[in-house]
Every structure is written in C-alpha cells, then in structure tokens.
Amino acid sequence: MSENYQGLGQYSMEKGAARKRRSKYIVIGIVVLLVILIAGGVTAGILISNNNKSSSGGKSSTDKSTDKNASKDPSVFKKDPSLHKSFYGMAYTPEGSLLPECGNSLENVIKDIQLLSQLTTRVRLYGADCNQTALVLEAIKQTKVEMEVFVGNYVVPTDNTPYIRQREAIKSAIEIYGTDHIAGVTVGNEFMLNYLTERKSNDAQSAIAREGAAILIANIEDTRNMLASLGLKKNIPVGNSDAGSFFNTEVLSAIDYGLSNVHAWFANTTAEGAADWVTTFFEETNVQPAALLPNNPKMYIAETGWPTKSSDLGNANNGAADASVAGLQIFMDTFVCQANKAGIPYFFFEFFDEEWKDHQFGGVEGWWGIFNAE
C-alpha cells in the first residue's frame, strides 16, 4: 500500500474514533440530564408534599419546633386515661413546705396540679409557710386548669408569730394573683384539738375551750380585716378547720365555713362500714349543730380517707380497721360515690403519702395518700 493511502486510512480511522467519542459524550450528557431532571422532580414532589401536609395539619420541620416549645408549656400535658374528676376536693400540701428547710419548688407543684386537675377541681391547703400559697396559685396560672383553693394559715396556740407570718404571705399572694382561684381562707387547723389536748381536756365547750376559742377568733377577725384592707371586689369566706368533735360553738359562730376532719379509721370501723360511719358522724356532729347558729356556717368534711399501711405492726390495726391498699380501695369505692350522690362537700385525705409524718410520728400517719411519694 502506498504512503498516501496509508495516511488516508489513518485519517478515516481517527475520524471514526472521534465520531464514536462524540456519540459517547452525547449519551453520557443525556443520562446526566435525565438524572438531573429526575432529581429535580423528586425534590419538587417532596416540597409539594410537605406544603400539602403543612396546610392540612401535617407535621413539618416547623411543626416539630412548635411541638418542642409546646412541651415546655405547663398547660400542655398528657392526661392519664385512668384518672377521672371523681373527687369533690383533695387535701394537699406541696412537698417540702415545712420550715426551716422549705424544699418545695414551682416545678414540683406544677406537676402536682397537673395530676390533681385530673381528679378534682378543688384543693385545700393547711398553711402558708414556704410560699406555698403563691406556688399553688402560680401553678394554676401556668397550667390553666380549673382549680380553686382553700388557702390555710396554721395557727400555733402558744405563739402568734407564725400566724402573722402566714397572714402576710397570704396577703402578698392575693396582691399578686388576685382571688379568682381562692375559695376561702382557713384560719387554724386542729387548733382546738391541740389546745385542749395539751391541757388534758376533751370538752370543746368548757371554760378552758373558751380561752382557746378567744385566741382563734381574734385571728379569724384579723384575717377578715386583712382581706377588707385589700379592697377586694369578691367576698372571700373565712373559715376554720378542726377535728370533727372539737368544734367550739363560739368559733362556729365566728366563721363562714367549717372544715371537719372525720376519720372512720380512728373509730375502729371496718373499711366496708367506714363510709356510712363518716356521713352519719358528719351530719349529726357538725352539720346539724352548725345549722342551728344564726350565721349558719357551711360545713365541709376537711379530711377523710384510709391508711394503706403502718410503719410498725402495733398500729397496723385499729380495732376492726386494717391499714391496707385494699381497705383504701373499698373506702373510695363506697364513700366517694355516696358523698357525691348526696352532695356532701369533702376533701379526700390525701393526695400523696407524706414521709415526713412517718419519720416524725410513725404508725399510719405517713400513709394516707392515694399516690405514693413518687
């Protein structure tokens, strides 16, 4: 073959190879373009899908952020389907509300109010130390639950300083939070019981009792004056709480309401017979005498319940009464239904076990809660 023909052949081969390379590049380009178009379509589909979900209430990244913020809102909390607003009211003291420690906290009170709001619309407090009145009102404000509070001032017979300290704490709480969620101010808890017991007496109408009543009535009137000084548009009732058989007539005549502690456990009854015993005692010992007075104070059962155990065997039984979870269940099943049907106002005793009472008093004292300490 001549040199010219060899060159022409070489040129034809290179031209063919170039043509093949261009075809290859075109194919690759088309594939890349298709990939880009497909990816773009998928992305657009995802964006449209997310937009549709957002507009129809679905979850987007923004919704997740909202959910995270909502979880920090105390008014947004998970309800327990096994709990119901079956109780008229509940006796409650925020954990850690004792001087001098004052270990209570708003965080814990909020958790308590969230749980309590699933059981009742009313709570009663026993005292005002450790800022517990303000903590409860703040918790109600933040959780936005339906709840009213009977705030308390725990009066000491031998020292008026605690009364004054708590009166000022209650006053301050009202000035901050108002009275929308306050149902009453209770002055004294088992004051007459303690006063008479220390003087070895059990007669609530005796001369000794009248001495104690005079101290208590002075504090009741002082509380009324404190409330009047605030210029409140709402009338706040002022009451007293005591053991059912220790209400003094003079004290009853000076209050708007009375809270009576009525415990069948201490009457040596069975759990099965406890509900009837409580309602009969309350009607005969508290409701009927109060109705005879000119002021006709409204009477509530301040405490009634059943202990679930005792810290020592010697106090595990009280006559026919046995401290047990089964006993508490029986009493709740009978008393709550009967009292609700009869329209008896009561505060079930109590929200949770209070271990400090067990440490201080032993026996059944710390084990009356429908929830344990945790």
Automatic annotation (TrEMBL):
It is found in: Cell membrane; Secreted, Cell wall. PANTHER family: GLUCAN 1,3-BETA-GLUCOSIDASE, GLUCAN ENDO-1,3-BETA-GLUCOSIDASE BTGC. It catalyses: Hydrolysis of (1->3)-beta-D-glucosidic linkages in (1->3)-beta-D-glucans. Glucanases play a role in cell expansion during growth, in cell-cell fusion during mating, and in spore release during sporulation. This enzyme may be involved in beta-glucan degradation. Active on laminarin and lichenan. InterPro entries: Beta-glucan_modifiers, GH, Glyco_hydro_17. The lineage of its organism: Eukaryota, Fungi, Dikarya, Basidiomycota, Agaricomycotina. Residues 53-78 are annotated as: Disordered. Its main location: membrane. Residues 61-78 have a biased composition (Basic and acidic residues). It comes from Asterophora parasitica. Its EC number is 3.2.1.39. Keywords: Carbohydrate metabolism, Cell membrane, Cell wall, Cell wall biogenesis/degradation, Glycoprotein, Hydrolase, Membrane, Polysaccharide degradation, Secreted, Signal, Transmembrane, Transmembrane helix. It is an enzyme of class 3 (hydrolase). It comes from the Eukaryota. It is a single-pass type II membrane protein. Pfam families: Glyco_hydro_17. Belongs to the glycosyl hydrolase 17 family. One of its GO terms (cellular component) is fungal-type cell wall. GO terms for molecular function: glucan endo-1,3-beta-D-glucosidase activity. This is glucan endo-1,3-beta-D-glucosidase. The chain crosses the membrane at residues 25-48. GO terms for biological process: cell wall organization; polysaccharide catabolic process.
